[in-house]
Amino acid sequence: MPLPRQVFIAVIGAGGVGKAFLAQLSHLASNLSRSPGAPTYLSLILLSTSKKSVYHSDYKSLSNWEAELQNSTTPPLPLPQLADYLVKAPGKVVLVDNTSNQDVADSYPPFLKKGISIVTPNKKAFSSTYQLWTDIFSGAANGTGTGGYVFHESSVGAGLPVISTLKDLVETGDDVRKIEGVFSGTMSFLFNSFQPVSGGGGKFSAEVKTAKEKGFTEPDPRDDLNGLDVARKLTILARLVGLKIESPTSFPVQSLIPKELESCSSGDEFLSRLPEFDNEMEELKADAEKEGKVVRFVGSVDVPKGEVKVGLEKFDKSHPIAALKGSDNIIAFYTKRYGDNPLIIQGAGAGGEVTAMGVTSDLIKVVRLLQ
Amino acid sequence: MPLPRQVFIAVIGAGGVGKAFLAQLSHLASNLSRSPGAPTYLSLILLSTSKKSVYHSDYKSLSNWEAELQNSTTPPLPLPQLADYLVKAPGKVVLVDNTSNQDVADSYPPFLKKGISIVTPNKKAFSSTYQLWTDIFSGAANGTGTGGYVFHESSVGAGLPVISTLKDLVETGDDVRKIEGVFSGTMSFLFNSFQPVSGGGGKFSAEVKTAKEKGFTEPDPRDDLNGLDVARKLTILARLVGLKIESPTSFPVQSLIPKELESCSSGDEFLSRLPEFDNEMEELKADAEKEGKVVRFVGSVDVPKGEVKVGLEKFDKSHPIAALKGSDNIIAFYTKRYGDNPLIIQGAGAGGEVTAMGVTSDLIKVVRLLQ
């Protein structure tokens, strides 16, 4: 593609996703600079964590970000100053937000209005108040504004092409009727192990423990079991099909944290008491089994009814949602064009590498649009 | 998005895909013209079939293409004159090729070099000689050239996001190891009915007849059964991951036309004699059944080995390829990042509406890039 000579990149966050993204950025920058038609130079001009940051007042590229960050004693720039710094860069700027920070998300509207583009897996920007959603897309060039571009493929299903596919369906005029799926790697693993299609499976509390040990849960598993992460993803998808969802708590979300354990003071206390509720879960399993079904934790959007919900549902053993493996996500789009057999996307929906992949492919799209 | 004020569209082909595309174009044009930020006007300036065409020397938009085409007595423009006409349009031009014509495909390189962009489901452009592939992408702005853009999502799996996903995997630096799937709606229907996972199923020749009656085959079913359509799709995917595949006949492709019937003079003669070979197909079915498997017609690319092949394979009944329904396609990408559980895309891979959807979403991408 005939690309711009230089695009400046600023990255916030250097955790699992951030590190994987920086590795992919380095691969991408090398490829784009060697593009025979019109080489493009991606310059990493800022890298910031919650504790420190590294950048140069003359916008010189960071040559060795790992060492520079490690040796840095510079605190992160407050967000307004960050915007000022980026807006004065001698070229187009893309801010890559690899955090899940609400404050950073809240600052997207002013960044976008200043012409700074944003790519991010940060769900909070798109699933908090409807006002924030409106403010973001009324400023963005790919909304109704004239500022920077904003892309967030990895905010649902990590690198799986969920958001781009839904946008394509809507923009080409298909009639999206229902979206249904398993949107959490943790919930996928838990229920695929708790009640495999082939029968058997462990006690629910034991599977939660295993998932935590395997690193499939947040440090405190309650952050997965409360359903909020899934509710945020459904909020994003529902808004993309045009529903005005006020917040991820404005529709029914089933929490898997028993009422009696809501007051536990720590994740460890919660885990130690969770076995008290295994009998309830075993009953659910047995009820489903009687109907030849299995229990799964799903989210769905019923578009004509304007209904969004998140919680446990029973599925026939031959249903693609029942047959899911490991910690995979699955997303089914039921539309007028696709008829009875939905368009299905399936695969790993969490993890640093695949989440970063969604961010990097968004960056490629923005760089091409900025030409 | 801040879009260009006007983009000129020329469409070749007004069959099933062409008609569905024109309906989607009208919906899209209406939406883009009402875009609050920067309205864009898509002007349909030419529509051509193999028999006649309609266009105006002053590039006036076709106001009512159906009536204008019906009343037209103008023959189609020869391709060089078509290029001359389009290149003199007072703005950027996108040629939408909704044919499966080799001559039109062969003319892409000069069109692209003249700055005309192309969107198309025409497999022949990307699956004929490797020289044509090289000529196309050495001229295109999204290849190594500086001409128009070329997008062809619907050349594999119709509107399913197969090509865009594969490009994202490759461009973000994932290591694609294997691509495997069912790439033909006809073959999907035939084998899902011939040997359902639940057992039973009809004789092969009877299923071919049913498929033809339901409109799931080409007018002459031999055009599906020879495997060439699937071979063309595999050629495209293999080239996208960097393999230099000379042509769709340069790797093993299993034809389901028995040797003895290759000389049949008509599709009808072929269909009437096909039952003579039902016993052979029943043996295949029984052999698979003995192993608890089913037979499916698949294509695969083994990237490290550089091997492409198309033909019958046996799959465990629990494999996603075995569980496919109706005439759906399924495509699995095995990559380093996705590990043992591939990224899977599944859904209708044929039909006017969904094929046109891929073309329309490509057009949206090009219009944005042309801004």
From TrEMBL, chains A, B:
Its cofactor is a metal cation. NADPH binds at residues 99, 123. The active site is at 233 (proton donor). Residues 161-364 form the Homoserine dehydrogenase catalytic domain. The keyword Transferase does not apply. Keywords: Amino-acid biosynthesis, Methionine biosynthesis, NADP, Oxidoreductase, Threonine biosynthesis. Gene3D superfamilies: Dihydrodipicolinate Reductase, domain 2, NAD(P)-binding Rossmann-like Domain. Its EC number is 1.1.1.3. NADP(+) binds at residues 13-18. SUPFAM superfamilies: Glyceraldehyde-3-phosphate dehydrogenase-like, C-terminal domain, NAD(P)-binding Rossmann-fold domains. InterPro entries: Asp/hSer_DH_NAD-bd, Bifunc_Aspkin/hSer_DH, HDH_cat, HDH_CS, HDH_short, NAD(P)-bd_dom_sf. L-homoserine binds at residue 218. Pathway: Amino-acid biosynthesis; L-methionine biosynthesis via de novo pathway; L-homoserine from L-aspartate: step 3/3; Amino-acid biosynthesis; L-threonine biosynthesis; L-threonine from L-aspartate: step 3/5. It catalyses: L-homoserine + NADP(+) = L-aspartate 4-semialdehyde + NADPH + H(+). Catalyzes the conversion of L-aspartate-beta-semialdehyde (L-Asa) to L-homoserine (L-Hse), the third step in the biosynthesis of amino acids that derive from aspartate (the aspartate family of amino acids), including methioinine and threonine, the latter of which is a precursor to isoleucine; production of homoserine leads to a branch-point in the pathway as it can either be O-phosphorylated for processing to threonine, or O-acylated for processing to methionine. Belongs to the homoserine dehydrogenase family. This is Homoserine dehydrogenase. It comes from Lojkania enalia.
